[in-house]
Write a structure and sequence with these properties.
With 119 residues, the chain is mainly α. It has 6 helices and no strands.
């Protein structure tokens, strides 16, 4: 999974959370379980994208797990709260932009080569 796909993955996962929104949320009202839900959604979206591309399952799992762990370490709690609040409020672009700020840090994760690609 190429790191440049991270914003797209975040966008897809935030759409899942945004669909649950009923009232405007503030970052301070976001709970740890809600942050965890977004983190899990990002990893699930990453794995799904790898499956769509027919990338090797183990490499996809390793790459997506690595990317998620890097984000969990590098993205501050306030940033997670802001991303989740934006997603709940239907502002997927802001949620994606917050996480995309850390895209360069995810490049430490080994990218997956598409199945059948030259090695």
């Amino acid at each position: 999974m190429k790191a440049s796909l991270l914003p797209r993955i975040a966008l897809l996962s935030t759409a899942l959370i945004a669909s649950q929104a009923f009232a405007q949320r503030t970052p301070d009202s976001v709970t740890d379980p809600e942050i965890g839900q977004l983190q899990s959604s990002i990893e699930e979206g990453c794995v799904s994208r790898g499956a769509e591309r027919k990338d090797p399952d183990k490499e996809v799992a390793d790459s997506c797990s690595c990317a998620t762990q890097v984000l969990r370490l590098k993205v501050s709690k306030k940033e997670w709260q802001a991303a989740v609040a934006a997603a709940f409020n239907g502002d997927k672009q802001t949620a994606t932009d917050i996480l995309a700020r850390h895209q360069q840090e995810v490049t430490v994760c080994k990218p997956v080569q598409a199945a059948g690609a030259a090695k």
